[in-house]
């Protein structure tokens, strides 16, 4: 039994079913601090609509006194992402919440180093000096 | 003056409005509701969903779900690989719907947050097998409530859509022997191996490329640092390309009544027994 027979079938999220990677969003607010004004507005007005539009995400609203407002996204890979929303307007908070919803939870990768990321090798092959015409002066 | 009228309790979220089930309140299971929606089964009765994820209550559903899952997976894989020999087929089937695979899928989908089980109930019970059995129970619940079509859609979407490379499973010991038996069974000419190319025969690292032929047809090709190894690989290749032949366009037998002209899928013959 080689190593290759120990792998399980690989999932391609979206090929069959699409499973949203964000499993829950926790909204923390404080009633006293002024930085929470936008968050409280958001919770009162926009949160219910967001919850209805995204039934796969569990929405938890918790009071966290004497702290800035925070949105925490929990993901299926076990990681979480936290965004502090102090002094943000409800529309700004809505943007951050959308960002958390659309994330996979994976650690942020630096994509600037490699121009192409692919599962298949290049079609024409990578250049090699041994397979080109000899240099002529 | 600016007066901030904040309330002592949660800001108006759990009062007037009819909140969706995925919002956590004092007395609802929002995790379960969210889980159901994540799998695409929000239409399933919540009490049935709860029963399916409670390990103690789910025995009937697990039993049913296992059979349903077995049916759809076997049907699909058999249609896709009609000539596959039985040992490889069973291994591949197990890879898709075995306990390890289902618990892996369960973990990927958040079932571990929702499943309810009593560890003291059975000392030999393991978390992964609980997940697998609850996943089976889910399939059973969908079949029970929403019918075979919905169950089939669920199985295909979450389990059968996954990719698995089948070549490593098609390896056999004594491939030469199996190939001879296969050629005898299919009334083809006896296998002959011929060197296709070689390099460095007398060096410390020779490479031979050997092809195995039945008459004029090349059945398989293999490389190796010795002639024997190359022939071995060539026979493996030949067997893999026969037994691992994949059908692309097919109509599943369970779709027979949804299609106007049902053409049954290819029924491969049994493997050559050695």
From TrEMBL, chain A:
Gene3D superfamilies linked: Glutaredoxin
Protein's GO biological process: mitochondrial translation
Keywords on record: Mitochondrion, Ribonucleoprotein, Ribosomal protein
Annotated Ribosomal protein/NADH dehydrogenase domain residues: 31-104
Chief site of localization: mitochondrion
Annotated GO MF terms: structural constituent of ribosome
One GO cellular component, as annotated: mitochondrial large ribosomal subunit
Subcellular location: Mitochondrion
InterPro entries: Ribosomal_mL43 (IPR039927), Ribosomal_mL43/mS25/NADH_DH (IPR007741), Thioredoxin-like_sf (IPR036249)
Entries under Pfam families matching the protein: L51_S25_CI-B8
Family affiliation: Belongs to the mitochondrion-specific ribosomal protein mL43 family.
Name of this protein: Large ribosomal subunit protein mL43
TrEMBL record, chain B:
PROSITE patterns linked: DS_RBD, RNASE_3_2
Keyword RNA-binding: yes
Subcellular location: Mitochondrion
Family matches, as InterPro entries: dsRBD_dom, Ribosomal_mL44_DSRM_fung, Ribosomal_mL44_DSRM_metazoa, RNase_III_dom, RNase_III_sf
Family of the protein in this entry: Belongs to the ribonuclease III family. Mitochondrion-specific ribosomal protein mL44 subfamily.
Pfam families: DSRM_MRPL44 (PF22892), Ribonucleas_3_3 (PF14622)
Occurrences of domain DRBM (ranges): 174-244
UniProt KW keywords: Mitochondrion, Ribonucleoprotein, Ribosomal protein, RNA-binding
Annotated source species: Circinella minor
One annotated Gene Ontology cellular component of this protein: mitochondrion
Protein name, UniProt field: Large ribosomal subunit protein mL44
SMART domains linked to this entry: DSRM, RIBOc
Gene Ontology biological-process entries: RNA processing
Keyword Zinc among UniProt keywords: no
Molecular function in Gene Ontology: double-stranded RNA binding; ribonuclease III activity; structural constituent of ribosome
Domain RNase III: 32-147
């Amino acid at each position: 039994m080689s190593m290759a027979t120990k792998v399980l079938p690989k999932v391609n999220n979206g090929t069959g079913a699409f499973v949203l990677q964000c499993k829950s969003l926790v909204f923390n607010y404080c009633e006293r601090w002024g930085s929470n004004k936008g968050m409280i507005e958001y919770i009162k007005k926009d949160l219910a609509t967001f919850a209805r539009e995204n039934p796969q995400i569990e929405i938890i609203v918790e009071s966290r006194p004497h702290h800035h407002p925070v949105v925490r996204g929990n993901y299926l890979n076990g990681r979480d992402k936290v965004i502090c929303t102090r002094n943000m307007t409800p529309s700004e908070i809505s943007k951050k919440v959308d960002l958390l919803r659309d994330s996979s939870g994976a650690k942020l990768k630096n994509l600037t180093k490699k121009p192409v990321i692919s599962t298949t090798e290049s079609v024409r092959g990578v250049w090699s000096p041994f397979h080109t015409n000899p240099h002529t002066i | 003056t600016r007066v901030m009228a904040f309330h002592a309790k949660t800001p108006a979220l759990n009062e007037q409005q009819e909140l969706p089930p995925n919002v956590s309140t004092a007395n609802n299971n929002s995790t379960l509701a969210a889980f159901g929606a994540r799998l695409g089964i929000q239409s399933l009765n919540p009490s049935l969903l709860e029963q399916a994820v409670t390990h103690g209550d789910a025995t009937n559903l697990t039993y049913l779900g296992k059979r349903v899952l077995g049916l759809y997976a076997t049907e699909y894989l058999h249609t896709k690989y009609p000539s596959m020999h039985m040992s490889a087929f069973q291994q591949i089937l197990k890879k898709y719907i075995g306990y390890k695979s289902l618990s892996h899928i369960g973990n990927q989908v958040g079932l571990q947050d929702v499943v309810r089980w009593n560890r003291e109930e059975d000392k030999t019970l393991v978390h992964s097998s609980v997940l697998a059995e609850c996943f089976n129970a889910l399939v059973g619940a969908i079949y029970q409530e929403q019918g075979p079509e919905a169950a089939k859609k669920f199985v295909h979407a979450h389990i059968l859509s996954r990719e698995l490379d089948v070549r490593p499973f098609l390896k056999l010991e004594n491939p030469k022997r199996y190939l001879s038996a296969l050629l005898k069974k299919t009334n083809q000419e006896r296998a002959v191996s011929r060197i296709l190319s070689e390099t460095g025969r007398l060096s410390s690292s020779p490479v031979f490329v050997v092809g195995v032929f039945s008459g004029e047809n090349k059945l398989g090709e293999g490389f190796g640092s010795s002639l024997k190894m190359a022939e071995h690989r060539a026979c493996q290749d030949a067997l893999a390309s026969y037994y691992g032949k994949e059908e692309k366009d097919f109509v599943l037998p369970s779709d027979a009544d949804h299609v106007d002209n049902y053409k049954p899928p290819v029924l491969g013959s049994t493997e050559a027994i050695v």
